Amino acid sequence: MGAGVRLPSVALKAALIVLFAFVIFGPIANMLIWAFAEVWYFPHKLPLKWGFAFWERVFRPQGNAMASLGTSVVIAFGTVLCSLAIAIPAGYALGRGKLPWRTAFLLLFLLPQAFPSVAVHMNIARIFYSLGLNGTLTGVVLVHTLQGLVFSVWIATAAFAAVDRDLELAARNMGATPFLAFRTVTLPLALPGILASAIFVFLTSLDEFTGTFFVGVPEIKTMPLLLFSASMEGNYQVASITALILLVPSILFMLLIERFLKADVLAKVGS
Amino acid sequence: MKGVSIEIADLSVSYGGTQVLTGIDLSIAPGEFIALLGPSGCGKTTLLRTLAGFVPAAAGEVRVDGQDVTGLPPEKRGMAMMFQSYALWPHMTVAENISFPLRIRRQPKAMVTAQVQRMLTLVGLDGFADRNVTRLSGGQRQRVALARALAVDPPVLLLDEPLSNLDARIRLSMRHEVKSLQKQLGLTAILVTHDREEAMAMADRVVILDHGTVAQAGTPEEIYHRPVSPYVAAFMGAENTCAVSLRHEGDRIALSGQQIRGTADLPVRAVNSRVRQDGPAAVFFRGDAARIAVPGETGSGDRDGHLTLSGRVSLHSYLGNVYRHTVDIGGSPFLVDHPVRMDVGVAVDVCVPAAALHIFERTGSAAATPAGEQFAQTH
């Protein structure tokens, strides 16, 4: 009986894995093919002509790809710095649980995500316009920070809450001022969680479209905007190549964090 | 540095509306070892944390070496604390943990290294300097915590149940190590514990706390032999209690009661009696201070100056050196130790010598045991 039950369950598992792989890798494979296709139209299953012609177009100086990539990365780093500057003090205050209305504060950071993002960004754009922030790097970084704040503050709160209060008190007891105790004991112990949130924020910023569209255009051109206009023009080759380029900073940033933290530390996040 | 004196005057502490400590008065001599003893919730840990500056005082004063430290932050108090959880920093090695207080005082590197080495030798952890603290055993962590606390030569050492996470054998040897280190260094030490044996073995003076007040403070001998209240008596192991009627007759005390055989006639000097007037009272005694006799086997002369209770054995357990018998006397259980096992159901006499009796006024309802079995501890 055992074998009779096991066989269908193995087959089912295999089928599910194949399905998941297809759902995840299918579109990526399609994108990869498009990146190297020069001529491809219906009803052909595969491109008629392969080549690097479009890569040359994207990387041409007037193609804007490198400039947008630079803008995207600068904005992403700016966003990470900005959200850490808010998330570390806010997470410490919320994680220590001394703050009244703690839950209300936590929900407050979720609020920008709760409303339709187009509506939120349209209104931000109007406010930023009057402040002269429209079309500036600062404006875009602020909008991206708002998006990333819910991740960074929540994760930082959990990370600080997981640090045993006695560890901090022991440092105070040994003669450390509150700030020194925070810098030498609490922050290093919460750092794995905080850096994990930095990955989220970095990736979200790199991918952000709506906010950049309303606040940044036309002065600020990021990779997702380039990708959007390429797809709108029906230029799938350029869109696919742009998307592939966008992967580079994401992977580099993750490698950086991974190098900085040992894997076993990352695995302990939240435990 | 030599130990300093600590003066606690009328100290009160409250936590979010609840009063945890009320009017604590205590003066501690330089170099003295004090144990704060009591069941959980009596406020002993809060008192220690208030001394360390982690918990603000609602009223009263703490003076260290004559100087008021009540409003000072923890880092300015010169008190080194050993936490129950040890509170070692997991992102630092053994040496980094111990050198932390020295490093933040910006001492020269050579001095720091030498002091860390001295501390490691002091607590018997030579060669552990570069170990990760998360890879140490409980006993080793405890030694690191002690070394870290002692690294800056503090005048006061605070110990928050430092031995409670260790297994029984290591605990016994650590007791003596900590105490001899404290004497050797001459520092003032305050220990929080719920273990009365630990308190008596380590401290020069034991302070028993009851719901945020000092129930009794005295040498281990005083609180063991001369408890001032039923609470202290029961906490120190005198959990057997019965209601009596008391009469003073010159320099003797006569006790009678439902559970007592005849009338016990005892010399007033021998008994720890807190009762001044004739009338209802309560008697407390420890199970290891009483003995069991079979009725009629020994002469009655043997029982002079004793309190004799009659009952039946209902249970016995072997403790290694003695058998602990549960004797049912007038419907209530009494614990009595005896070297020979008595069979269940046998009628026996429980004889308590006058010197082992604590007599208090009977307050309100039946037996005045404060928290009954909560204090039960095996030896």
From TrEMBL, chain A:
<comment type="similarity">
    <text>Belongs to the binding-protein-dependent transport system permease family.</text>
</comment>
<dbReference type="InterPro" id="IPR000515">
    <property type="entry name" value="MetI-like"/>
</dbReference>
<feature type="transmembrane region" description="Helical">
    <location>
        <begin position="65"/>
        <end position="92"/>
    </location>
</feature>
<feature type="domain" description="ABC transmembrane type-1">
    <location>
        <begin position="69"/>
        <end position="257"/>
    </location>
</feature>
<dbReference type="GO" id="GO:0005886">
    <property type="term" value="C:plasma membrane"/>
</dbReference>
<dbReference type="GO" id="GO:0055085">
    <property type="term" value="P:transmembrane transport"/>
</dbReference>
<feature type="transmembrane region" description="Helical">
    <location>
        <begin position="104"/>
        <end position="129"/>
    </location>
</feature>
<dbReference type="InterPro" id="IPR035906">
    <property type="entry name" value="MetI-like_sf"/>
</dbReference>
<feature type="transmembrane region" description="Helical">
    <location>
        <begin position="12"/>
        <end position="37"/>
    </location>
</feature>
<keyword id="KW-1133">Transmembrane helix</keyword>
<dbReference type="Pfam" id="PF00528">
    <property type="entry name" value="BPD_transp_1"/>
</dbReference>
<feature type="transmembrane region" description="Helical">
    <location>
        <begin position="184"/>
        <end position="203"/>
    </location>
</feature>
<keyword id="KW-0997">Cell inner membrane</keyword>
<keyword id="KW-0812">Transmembrane</keyword>
<keyword id="KW-0472">Membrane</keyword>
<feature type="transmembrane region" description="Helical">
    <location>
        <begin position="236"/>
        <end position="257"/>
    </location>
</feature>
<keyword id="KW-0813">Transport</keyword>
<protein>
    <submittedName>
        <fullName>ABC-type spermidine/putrescine transport system permease subunit II</fullName>
    </submittedName>
</protein>
<feature type="transmembrane region" description="Helical">
    <location>
        <begin position="141"/>
        <end position="163"/>
    </location>
</feature>
<keyword id="KW-1003">Cell membrane</keyword>
